[in-house]
Amino acid sequence: MVTANAEIGVIGGSGFYSFLDDVTETVVDTPYGPPSDSVFLGELSGRRVAFLPRHGRGHHLPPHRINYRANLWALRSLGVRQVLGPCAVGGLQPEYGPGTLLVPDQLVDRTKARQQTYFDGEPLPGGAVPNVVHTSFADPYCPEGRRVALKSARGRGWEPVDGGTLVVVEGPRFSTRAESKWHAAMGGAVVGMTGHPEAVLARELGLCYTSLTLVTDLDAGAETGEGVSHAEVLRVFGENVGRLREVLFDAVGALPASEGRDCLCTHAHDGWDLGIELP
Ligand SMILES: [Zn+2]
Question: Which of 74, 220, 233, 243 has a CB 3.0–4.6 Å from the CB of 216, allowing a cystine?
């Protein structure tokens, strides 16, 4: 039995928690197996925060091998009710060049082989069987969390792009030029590999989820040169991780109280009998 001792979750790299004082490392298990790594609990801006390295320490898990169900379940079992999910993306439109911070309001799922629901009819270890549930997902991100993220960016002098569609691909390879042009033509703003199923699993657990995307490259279609290189992605991420951390930490402090939230995230299952108890 895990004690509830965090309220806000941040799924991101070790750059977001490694320098905090008084961080407690907690190993959490879930009915879906272990999450990407230990969860690191600490206090930030007066809030109890749980940090989870999405790719594990040392970045050993590729996007398609991340146990997204375990990650979100683990956070909720610790008491988390609001999640911030920063991630690196490619820009699909020329105006969204490296260093752009975009807070998406939509996503398109182009992943192929990921577990993306808790309601799959498989019994949990305790014997409870989830019912067939169709979760409302028209608006995949928390409107309150988005508002806070945008305000926090502006407060740090980093004018964000307010809205846009995050296309999530299976990876781990980057897109071909044809795929990239297609994603742009269908209205995609940015493309990444981890934003889904993170968002939908959060919604299934009644968690508020906000994605903050940092553009590290122009994707293959918008790029006139050699296409995306990993070295370039790392370089741009390194240049921006400091201010992304500042924005995240400001956002943590500015998120609404978790108790009494009334945003759409909390109503996704109104009228449904889930068949299982959420942790
Ligand atoms: Zn919400």
Answer: 233
Confidence of residue 222 (pLDDT cuts 50, 70, 90): low
Averaged pLDDT, 183-196: 96
Is 193 marked as binding a ligand? yes
Structure tokens at 137: 């997902």
- Among 21, 109, 120, 219, the one annotated catalytic: 219
Under DSSP, the state recorded for 170 is: -
Contacts of 53 (CB under 8 A, 6+ apart): 12, 13, 14, 36, 37, 40, 59
Say whether 105 is catalytic. no
Residue 70 dihedral angles phi and psi, to the nearest 5°: -65, -40
246 touches 101 (CB < 8 A): no
The structural domains of the chain, with segments of one domain joined by +, span 8-267
Question: Tokens in use for 253?
Answer: 């402090």
Q: Per-residue b/e over 33-67, b at no fewer than 16 CB within 10 Å?
A: eebbbbbbbbebeebbbbbbbbbbeeeebebeebb
pTM: 0.94
Helix and strand numbers, DSSP H then E, in the chain: 5, 11
277 class by beta-carbon count within 10 Å (0-12 exposed, 13-18 middle, 19+ buried): exposed
d(CA 245, CA 134): 35
The label of the residue with tokens 């502006």 reads: 154
CA geometry: angle at 48 spanning 46 and 51, to 5°? 125
Q: How far is the CA of 264 from the centre of ligand 1 (A)?
A: 6
Instruction: Look up the CATH number of domain 8-267.
Output: 3.40.50.1580
Cα–Cα distance measured from residue 35 to residue 22, given in angstroms and rounded to the nearest whole number: 22
